[in-house]
């Protein structure tokens, strides 16, 4: 049996309208991306990308979106993302853009990249703070950035040692 390889495209929804991030849903992003692929690459591109295209993760608060597609057609997907100009939700259109942050072979590599990216963003926020209270809040956020899986693995090792 043959394993189908996928690519994961990590994107950020960039919008000046704050309501845009509150109203986005996986279905809305998926339809907007499919529409852009159809406009840019036609039926052929849409058929290639639709085989295993899905929105794997969406965080409306941070505007982070993780898209999955086949390895063969990820370039078609990436080239169509700049043509997403708005998201339509509940009968309203919100102007926005999708900014590609990272393309990876696994969800795990995208998670690692996102953690490093958020740490860099927090460092720039730290440099732009105006008072000490803002600095303290940003430092706390910066120090709390870590993978939860690593923390749970270290806890499991301790539990295994106590049962023997």
Automatic annotation (TrEMBL):
Write down what this protein is called. Answer: Ribonuclease P/MRP protein subunit POP5
Question: Pfam families given for it?
Answer: RNase_P_Rpp14
Which family, according to the similarity comment? Answer: Belongs to the eukaryotic/archaeal RNase P protein component 2 family.
InterPro entries in the cross-refs: Pop5/Rpp14/Rnp2-like, RNase_P/MRP_POP5, Rnp2-like_sf
State the UniProt keywords alphabetically: Nucleus, rRNA processing, tRNA processing
Cellular location(s) = Nucleus, Nucleolus
Keyword presence, Zinc:
no
Q: Name one GO molecular function term.
A: ribonuclease P RNA binding
Q: How does it assemble?
A: Component of nuclear RNase P and RNase MRP ribonucleoproteins. RNase P consists of a catalytic RNA moiety and 10 different protein chains; POP1, POP4, POP5, POP7, RPP14, RPP21, RPP25, RPP30, RPP38 and RPP40. Within the RNase P complex, POP1, POP7 and RPP25 form the 'finger' subcomplex, POP5, RPP14, RPP40 and homodimeric RPP30 form the 'palm' subcomplex, and RPP21, POP4 and RPP38 form the 'wrist' subcomplex. All subunits of the RNase P complex interact with the catalytic RNA. Several subunits of RNase P are also part of the RNase MRP complex.
* Originating species: Upupa epops (Eurasian hoopoe)
Which Gene Ontology BP annotations are present? rRNA processing; tRNA 5'-leader removal
Carries keyword Nucleotidyltransferase? no
Q: What is the annotated role of this protein in its UniProt record?
A: Component of ribonuclease P, a protein complex that generates mature tRNA molecules by cleaving their 5'-ends. Also a component of the MRP ribonuclease complex, which cleaves pre-rRNA sequences.
Q: Which GO terms describe its cellular component?
A: multimeric ribonuclease P complex; nucleolus
């Amino acid at each position: 049996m043959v394993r189908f390889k996928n690519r994961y495209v990590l994107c950020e929804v960039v919008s000046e309208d704050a309501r845009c991030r509150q109203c986005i849903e996986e279905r809305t992003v998926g339809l907007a991306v499919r529409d852009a692929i159809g406009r840019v690459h036609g039926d052929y591109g849409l058929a290639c990308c639709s085989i295993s295209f899905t929105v794997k993760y969406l965080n409306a608060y941070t505007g982070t979106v993780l898209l999955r597609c086949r390895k063969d057609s990820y370039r078609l997907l990436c080239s169509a993302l700049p043509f997403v100009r708005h998201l339509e939700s509940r009968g309203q259109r919100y102007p926005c853009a999708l900014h590609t942050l990272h393309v990876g072979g696994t969800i795990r590599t995208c998670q690692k990249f996102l953690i490093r990216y958020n740490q860099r963003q927090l460092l720039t926020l730290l440099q732009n703070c105006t008072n000490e209270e803002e600095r303290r809040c940003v430092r706390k956020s910066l120090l709390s950035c870590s993978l939860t899986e690593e923390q749970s693995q270290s806890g499991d090792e301790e539990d295994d040692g106590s049962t023997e």
